[in-house]
């Protein structure tokens, strides 16, 4: 465990950038960047293009360690280089703590939730993550309905895998997303909070996790989680909200910082000049940082 990075994640002012779109979501990310599916052929070209996009973001002067405390990477991004350095090392040299997405996507909906698909190669991923100087991981489930048994199963799965990640001396980000379109979003969040608390209370004093949650319907509904001694940091996903809406909701929640993906890259385009690209990214970083600071 890198103690300096631990301290930065625990107490740093700023937010975590999510740059972890994987195979299924990459075409949508590229399309939003102005690269349509008919402009490339096959996965190899697709992943080359998305790495170029991520490289452009990461190397921009607007993407700095003063306002961005961490960045979540896709597995292929971890294994690729930026300016002759592995991506995690390049980020660390900028003062940005690297994380890795480790899940393999979502299972079909059952009991109002979508569990994670089995991660049968997790031990190998964690070994490689340590070799690549990755500090933490991220894994996502989705909650659609306030089904108590379904939400309990989501949280239990997340923490079971989280303990396997902790055993590899890596910090897990537990991400049970609540669908912002759920008709009973507030009730889902109440059940989720209680189930997470049960799991947190069972962790030992030397075990810490992070949480990545949908911005709650009621401001400060997750304050008990944010203040829990086993929680290193709680971050929020934008979840489909526009950047302005996500920022406004985030500001209402003490101690909650951003970990945005679409809201960060929404105005970035492949055909922008370097000046226009950096300006658009700086505007996004500035507004998300402003919504995340002075939260402790």
Description of the molecule:
This protein has helices at residues 3-11, 26-32, 42-59, 75-79, 87-93, 122-131, 148-167, 185-200, 223-226, 243-251, 262-265, 274-292; strands at residues 15-19, 68-73, 81-82, 85-86, 97-101, 113-114, 136-143, 171-178, 209-214, 231-237, 257-258. By secondary structure, the protein is of the alpha/beta class. The strands form 2 sheets. Strands 1, 2, 5, 6, 7, 8, 9, 10 and 11 form a 9-stranded mixed sheet that branches. A two-stranded antiparallel ribbon has the order 3-4.
Overall body shape? globular
* Sheet having the most strands: 9 strands, mixed
Question: How large is the count of helical segments?
Answer: 12
Distance between the termini: 23 Å
Structural class: alpha/beta
Q: Give the overall pLDDT as a whole number.
A: 93
Order of helical and strand elements: HEHHEHEEHEEHEHEHEHEHEHH
Name its key features:
43% helix; two-stranded antiparallel sheet; alpha/beta; 296 residues; globular; 9-stranded mixed β-sheet
Question: Which helices and strands appear, and what pairs or packs with what?
Answer:
Blueprint lengths: L2 H9 L3 E5 L6 H7 L9 H18 L8 E6 L1 H5 L1 E2 L2 E2 H7 L3 E5 L11 E2 L7 H10 L4 E8 L4 H20 L3 E8 L6 H16 L8 E6 L8 H4 L4 E7 L5 H9 L5 E2 L3 H4 L8 H19 L4
Parallel strand pairs: 1-2, 2-5, 5-7, 7-8, 8-9, 9-10, 10-11
Antiparallel strand pairs: 3-4, 6-7
Can you summarize this structure?
The protein is of the alpha/beta class. The protein contains twelve helices and eleven strands.
């Amino acid at each position: 465990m890198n103690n300096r990075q631990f301290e930065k994640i625990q107490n740093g002012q700023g937010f975590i950038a999510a740059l972890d779109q994987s195979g299924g979501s990459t075409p949508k990310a590229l399309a939003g960047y102005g690269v349509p599916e008919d402009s490339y052929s096959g996965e190899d070209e697709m992943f080359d293009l998305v790495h170029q996009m991520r490289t452009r973001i990461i190397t921009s002067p607007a993407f700095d360690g003063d306002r961005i405390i961490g960045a979540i990477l896709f597995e292929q991004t971890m294994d690729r280089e930026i300016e002759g350095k592995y991506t995690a090392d390049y980020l660390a040299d900028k003062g940005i703590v690297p994380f890795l997405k480790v899940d393999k996507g979502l299972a079909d909906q059952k009991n109002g939730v979508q569990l994670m698909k089995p991660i049968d190669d997790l031990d190998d991923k964690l070994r490689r993550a340590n070799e690549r100087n990755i500090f933490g991981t991220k894994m996502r489930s989705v909650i659609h309905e306030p089904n108590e048994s379904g939400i309990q199963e989501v949280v239990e799965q997340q923490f079971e895998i989280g303990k396997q990640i902790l055993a590899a001396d890596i910090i897990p980000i537990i991400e049970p997303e609540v669908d912002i379109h759920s008709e009973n979003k507030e009730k889902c969040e109440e059940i989720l909070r209680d189930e997470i608390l049960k799991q947190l209370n069972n962790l030992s004093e030397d075990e810490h996790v992070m949480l990545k949650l949908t911005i709650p319907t009621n401001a400060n509904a997750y304050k008990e989680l944010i203040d829990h001694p086993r929680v290193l940091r709680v971050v929020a996903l934008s979840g489909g909200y526009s950047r302005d809406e996500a920022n406004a909701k985030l500001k209402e929640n003490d101690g909650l910082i951003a970990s945005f993906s679409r809201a960060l890259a929404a105005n970035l385009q492949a055909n922008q000049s370097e000046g226009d690209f950096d300006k658009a990214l700086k505007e996004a970083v500035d507004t998300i940082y402003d919504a995340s600071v002075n939260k402790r």
